[in-house]
Amino acid sequence: MGNPYVIIGTGAAGMAAAERLRLLKPDATIQMLSIDEYSHSRCMLHKFLSGERDEEGLSFVPEDFFEKKQILWGKGQKVTGINPKQKRVLLEQGYLPYEKLLIATGSVYGIPPIPGFRTAANVFGFRDLSDAQKIKKVIQEQDVKHVFIVGSGLVGLDVAYALLERGIKVTIAEMAERVLPLQTDTTSAQAYQELFEKAGAVFKLGIGASDSVVNDQNQITAVKLSNGEEISCDFVVCAAGVRPNLAFLEGSGLKTERGIVVDEFMRTSDLDIYAAGDVTALSGIWPNAMDQGRIAAANMSGQQMKYTDIFCIKNTINFFGLTMLSVGEVEPKEEGSQIYKRECRNAYQKVIVRNGTVKGVQLQGDISHSGFWQYLIKNQIDISELLLKKSVFEIGYEDFYKLDDLGEYFYKNSTVSF
């Protein structure tokens, strides 16, 4: 038997690739490697931190996935490098040869260059299970009363939500003027801010951290803000800014820019090495990472499949029971855009239209029929004529298809399909 197909990473891209590879290569040896000892959904880490779930409860595949698929899993294995010439994955102890290799190592958090932040012992990120485990250990061993969080994006608010559930006070500093600045506008952001403030969170918006107070145990005890204010804390969580996990590729010769450079087949500059997910910097959302993993696996097995779904500006949010879907542009990126808004007691809707096509939509409170809007944006369907007859919020599936005499749907416009 030849060398195994090796997949580095057990996140969305890696697991989807492994499942597809087993389907296409039923007799091949498939070896997965991960630094964590549990496969987990990053989207669920806040539930682990809050105590709602344990490590096993974070898995997004069946408990017998590896056994049933006959996939080998090297848990707790740190990859230190790759040698494409010898076709080896270098580990802390030894190496692993490969036939084809998929890199699905995701991304890592960054720590801002604030005095004390990069050297203090009580500054954490929140990107992987190991990060959540470190924070949880501190909470369990110490009397934690107040945590300072840098960034109010999805990760920052996930951390805040989990800590508030534990009764821990949080202060969140955000350089932007609103929370969730990449996913919301002023109206939708205010709704989430009010819910967090009602739960006890304190926001410092339009303000950054500029310095820290460090004690003789190398622990940050307070963070100084750019406005001169000083916030006491037990530890700090950095949740602003991530980057593809590329450090171990130094010296490999693989072409990188923001992330690993891949072609439409998810192939890197080496013909036997593929990459998928956050490490490619192509997309930051779960479904796209899984699609990339499946397409990479198909090409690793000898098929020819292209990745064409470059549309990836989509976020689904749910805090305190308030759900929101944000697709495409949050604010207009060009002049000449029309902005349509509709608000009621429990819902907020916003649609951005430019040159007759929908460029962005926000649905907060009621995200039903969201698939319709995603399709319009992704495929840039012209709705100009419809807007002459009705409100943008009245446009629906019935404008694009109808029932025939047999009671079956057919499309009024053959170029449009859902």
Radius of gyration: 24 Å
Number of helices: 9
Mean pLDDT over the full residue set = 91
Gap between N and C termini:
45 Å
Description of the structure:
The protein has 418 residues and is an alpha/beta fold. The chain has nine helices and 25 strands. The two termini are 45 Å apart. β13 and β14 form a beta hairpin. The strands form seven sheets. It has a five-stranded parallel sheet with strand order 3-2-1-7-18, covered by helices on one side. The longest helix has 15 residues. The relative contact order is 0.12. It is globular. Helices cover 22% and strands 27% of the residues.
Keywords:
disordered C terminus; alpha/beta; 418 residues; 25 strands; 22% helix; five-stranded parallel sheet; 27% strand
List the helices and strands and how they pair.
Layout lengths: L4 E4 L3 H13 L5 E4 L11 H6 L14 H5 L2 E3 L4 E5 L4 E4 L3 E3 L3 E3 L3 E3 L13 E2 L4 H13 L4 E5 L3 H12 L3 E6 L11 H13 L3 E4 L3 E6 L5 E6 L4 E3 L2 E4 L3 E3 L28 E3 L10 H15 L13 E6 L2 E7 L9 E6 L4 E7 L2 E8 L5 H10 L4 H4 L13 E3 L5 E3 L7
Parallel strand pairs: 1-2, 1-7, 2-3, 7-18, 9-16, 10-11, 10-16, 11-12
Antiparallel strand pairs: 4-5, 5-6, 8-17, 13-14, 14-15, 19-20, 20-23, 21-22, 22-23, 24-25
Helix pairs in contact: 1-7
Concise overview:
The protein has 418 residues and is of the alpha/beta class.
